[in-house]
Design goal:
The protein is α+β, with helices and mostly antiparallel strands. The protein contains 17 helices and 20 strands.
Length: about 550
Amino acid sequence: MVRTRLAIALLALLPLSSPAPAQQKDDLIIGVSQFPAALHPDLESHVVQSLILGMTQRPFTAYDPDWKLICMLCTELPDRAKGTAREWTTPDGKPGWAIDYAIDPRAKWGDGTPITTRDVQFVYDVGRNPDAGANNQEMYRTFEKLEVKDERKFTVYTNKRECDYQRLGDFELVPAHLEKPIYQQGAKEYRNRTSYQTQPTNPGLWFGPYVVTKIEPGATIVLERNPNWWGKPAAFRRIIFRVVENTAALEANLLSGAIDYIAGEDGLTLDQALAFEKRNGDRFNVVYKPGLIYEHIDLFLENPLLADVRVRQALLMGIDREAISAKLFEGKQPVAQGGVNPLDVVYDPKAPSYPFDARRAAALLDAAGFKPGADGIRRNAAGQPLSLDLMTTAGNRVRELVETVIQSDLKKIGVDIKIKNEPAQVFFGQTMRERKFNAMGMFAWSSSPKNIPYTTLHSSMIPTAANNWSGQNYTGFKNAEMDTVLERVRVECADDVQAQLWSRIQSLYAEELPVLPLYFRTNSYVLPKQLKGVRPTGHQNPSTLWVEDWRWQ
């Protein structure tokens, strides 16, 4: 900002002439609060990772900022009317789909190698092998077979006739010419040996407008224009992700000019953004985007203290979530009654809910056998205190504030909360993924519209050492009816049936409470007024998927 003002002052001293055209800024420095655990698109899942992959890769399909499903790496969406999606039956009689896709013929890896069905076949083989521990193993279980037609065209045959058959967003390509020899050394060790861990600056790993050129662990990730990008040219020569884990320090870095832009998907908290806008609205545009981002607390259900649903209900009723929303977020981050956002068309407002009621919460704990001790902390018949560890990402100011409110609220009903936070890289990379937390883990899920919570709620999605920690059911939730409903909602597509099934998912979620819902996040995008073209999506697919539209004006 100082350089801009100096240039204007000097121009005022020069003779009048035609105005010079606006110059494009070469480097864009983006501030984020977390460093990703890893960058392999199929083996890890993290919000900052998704921002980087949005600039360096392209999924086959994605939801755009208008929540419309579009092709990105494919040439067109499969369509029953066009014959590119056809009903098919497996050899053992299961109804499924035969779905045709074609890779954009211009697509190349960053080292110039064409993207072909060899890459498709490789990712298919890795995903189907449970030893590899792919993120969405359930997707691969629905794949019955893959038929390669030529170097660009392939057909996926499924063993379920799913309603959202056009989507292929979780099938993320990696380069077979680089990764297959590593994978062949052993599927179980592939996660640790992959080039995304050992050589992440190899341009052949990337195929978006940018490639990764430098990584300083825990600090920065540098991207530069991909000379083999086939799409619209990106405006910025270099984009640098700079990690400032303390969100309060992010603001100081922005004001000092150390960073240009704070990523809305992982940047300032809403309370900080509201205050920042009041002080600096003349220099920055602050865009608030409500969306499908669900802040919650996963409960480790194998902890005996959490086994009784009455304890889980008491915990939720003992937290004044309305006060959190009003006092910390000026009501802009509404209380979540469950995992489905009211913005989503499948939301059921009639699902059970748990308003703040400390008296009722205390009665539930009494009924569950936890009585107050002399120190005010409840204990069961064996004398075990109702003491629970609460964990989240260290340095995230708003989460740490919410933790202290929760700790204070629950102390009033006799629950002892011990706060034990970790750096995001450890919290997401090990503690949650490998289920090393012992009671409560607070974080957010970001989802796409009508996203079926199969990987977080189905009993087959519990991460274990045996499945190489794949799946996202970190709570260990097991419920036979929920399993059945989740399986049905994928394949029974009539509108009235869908409505009934979605309603039951939300009711079961509220009845069993494997998770404590907190609030739905509104992301705050703090944009310098010169930065144009950033379009927040409000869902799982990040704004960076359209980075080629960004410019400095």
